[in-house]
């Protein structure tokens, strides 16, 4: 107040300590405003005091601050130490001692280099600090009292007084577990890379934008080039084509589809053209890759070279065609021998039956050849045999699901159908205009067996034959033996009924 009156100035927001009569002290904020009369002369002053709480004495404040700093240094969870200009440890907290396994008297006072594995590293650290350089996360290796190596990151700067180096302020962060995890990851990546390199299949990877990030030696051989990683996109092939010869832009190839639509792509063939003009048919297997949060991070593709497979298929087709040609020649020879054998004989019907059986066998052989001897479609087999043997037209009703007969069952079943057709056209339902036959089949026993029914109706009354001929023996004995089938042939007055129940995967007879 006195200062404001004497100086004629305003005292604003000044902090003071007020002592009360009882000796208690409180801190207050004071503001002094001068009072003037109308003519401008000073007539007094007004003071405003606001108590802001008790404040400790300056010495006491300093003590509190020092205790806080001491507690922070000594009990902090991060390893801290000071190093003097001569490289000796001046001070270390408990976290630093726990990290290395030493007692304070074993650690403090020693040269810091004694605890570093790499002398050149600590020499570089001390040299930089001597130049008052600030270090951030400098990697180093420390040896503990037990001999264990700890990987650390050191951050440090220098405390100076009047420009003189007093001591360092070092923070040591233990990253040993992280380092070991990185080594494990690197080793895993190395093994994975070696595995991919060793695979005979062409494999490559891309990032989310389609840029190549890896390819193995097999991929380079298939492409005929070594594309540059990071700048080649979608596929390393020089040129791409569909099997029909249509060019495929790289950004429309199967790998591009997998990445753009974030889905696997299967059952597609393509052709890669090398710079030397040779072409390689292949089948790709592009698959998107995702991180733990299911976000797309790239894709991997495996290219299967189909060259040898297609060459083998062509050789197989040539062999099958040659086999088919020779079998047909053999059947023609048998037919010629039979014709010569039956020449001059009066039983013309027997000769025709024999020749038709050979022709039915040849037609069955044609179906098997067309299917590469994998089997035959049951509907196609029955339809062809009915058209050849009895020309039933619309009077033959064929009904049933799609069935690929096993190869072993095709010839026996074809001969059985031929015999039923021949009998129907000569003695059974197809001898009259109102007769008809129904051939139907279905899966039974959970799809493991096939049941086929042949039913004739509308023909002349049927009588049980006195003599069992070739056809009857084939139906009642041949099929059960060849196909492990349950067969039943009945001669009902309304027409012949034949029922067969066969396993679809039974082993061939021994």
What does this entry look like structurally?
- A hairpin with a 5-residue loop joins strand 9 and strand 10.
- The longest helix has 36 residues, at 307-342.
- This protein folds into 4 domains: 2-55, PAS domain (Beta-Lactamase, 2-Layer Sandwich); 60-178, PAS domain (Beta-Lactamase, 2-Layer Sandwich), CATH 3.30.450; 202-305, Beta-Lactamase; 310-503, 2-Layer Sandwich (Heat Shock Protein 90), CATH 3.30.565.
- The mean pLDDT is 85.
- The chain is built from 13 helices and 22 strands.
- The protein has 510 residues and is an alpha+beta fold.
- This is histidine kinase.
- Keywords: ATP-binding, Chromophore, Flavoprotein, FMN, Kinase, Nucleotide-binding, Phosphoprotein, Photoreceptor protein, Receptor, Repeat, Sensory transduction, Transferase, Virulence.
**Helicity range:** 25-40%
Count of domains: 4
Structural classification: alpha+beta
- Shape descriptor reads elongated
Describe the oligomeric state of these chains in a short phrase. Answer: single chain
Would you report the number of β strands?
22
| Average pLDDT reading | 85
CATH architecture of the largest domain: 2-Layer Sandwich
CATH topology of the largest domain: Heat Shock Protein 90
Protein name: histidine kinase
Catalytic activity: ATP + protein L-histidine = ADP + protein N-phospho-L-histidine
Domain PAS: 65-115, 188-228
Pfam family, one: PAS_9
């Amino acid at each position: 107040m006195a200062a404001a009156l004497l100086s004629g100035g305003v005292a604003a927001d000044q902090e003071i300590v007020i002592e009360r009569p009882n000796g208690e002290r409180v801190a207050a904020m004071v503001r002094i405003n001068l009072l003037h009369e109308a003519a401008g002369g000073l007539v007094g002053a007004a003071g405003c005091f606001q108590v802001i709480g008790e404040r400790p004495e300056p010495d006491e404040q300093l003590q509190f601050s020092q205790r806080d700093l001491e507690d922070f240094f000594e009990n902090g969870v991060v390893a801290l130490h000071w190093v003097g200009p001569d490289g000796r440890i001046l001070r270390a907290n408990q976290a630093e001692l726990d990290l290395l396994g030493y007692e304070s008297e074993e650690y403090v006072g020693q040269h810091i280099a004694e605890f570093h594995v790499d002398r050149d590293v600590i020499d570089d650290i001390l040299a930089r600090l001597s130049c008052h350089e600030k270090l951030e996360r400098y990697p180093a290796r420390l040896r503990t009292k037990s001999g264990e190596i700890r990987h650390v990151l050191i951050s440090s700067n220098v405390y100076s007084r009047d420009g003189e180096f007093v001591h360092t302020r070092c923070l040591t962060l233990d990253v040993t577990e992280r380092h070991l995890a990185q080594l494990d990851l690197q080793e895993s990546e190395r093994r994975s890379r070696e595995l991919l390199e060793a695979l005979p299949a062409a494999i490559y990877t891309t990032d989310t934008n389609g840029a190549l990030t890896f390819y193995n030696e097999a991929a380079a051989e298939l492409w005929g080039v070594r594309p540059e990683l990071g700048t080649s996109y979608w596929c390393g092939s020089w040129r791409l084509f569909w099997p029909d010869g249509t060019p495929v832009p790289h950004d429309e190839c199967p790998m591009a589809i997998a990445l753009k639509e974030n889905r696997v792509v299967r059952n597609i063939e393509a052709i890669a053209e090398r710079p030397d003009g040779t072409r390689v048919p292949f089948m790709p297997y592009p698959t998107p890759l995702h991180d733990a949060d299911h976000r797309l991070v790239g894709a991997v593709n495996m290219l299967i070279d189909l060259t040898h497979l297609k060459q083998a298929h062509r050789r197989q087709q040539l062999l099958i065609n040659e086999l088919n040609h020779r079998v047909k020649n053999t059947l023609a020879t048998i037919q010629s021998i039979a014709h010569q054998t039956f020449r001059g004989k009066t039983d013309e019907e027997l000769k025709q039956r024999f020749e038709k059986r050979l022709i039915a066998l040849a037609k069955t052989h044609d179906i098997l050849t067309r299917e590469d001897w994998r089997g035959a479609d049951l509907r196609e087999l029955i339809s062809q045999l009915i058209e050849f043997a009895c020309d039933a037209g619309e009077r033959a009703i064929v009904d049933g699901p799609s069935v690929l007969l096993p190869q072993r069952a095709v010839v026996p079943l074809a001969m059985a159908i031929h015999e039923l057709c021949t009998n129907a056209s000569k003695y059974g339902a197809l001898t009259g205009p109102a007769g008809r036959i129904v051939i139907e089949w279905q899966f039974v026993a959970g799809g493991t067996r096939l049941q086929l029914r042949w039913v004739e109706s509308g023909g002349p009354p049927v009588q049980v034959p006195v003599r069992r001929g070739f056809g009857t023996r084939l139906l009642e004995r041949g099929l059960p033996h060849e196909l492990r089938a349950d067969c039943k042939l009945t001669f009902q007055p309304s027409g012949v009924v034949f029922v067969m129940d066969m396993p679809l995967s039974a082993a061939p007879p021994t």
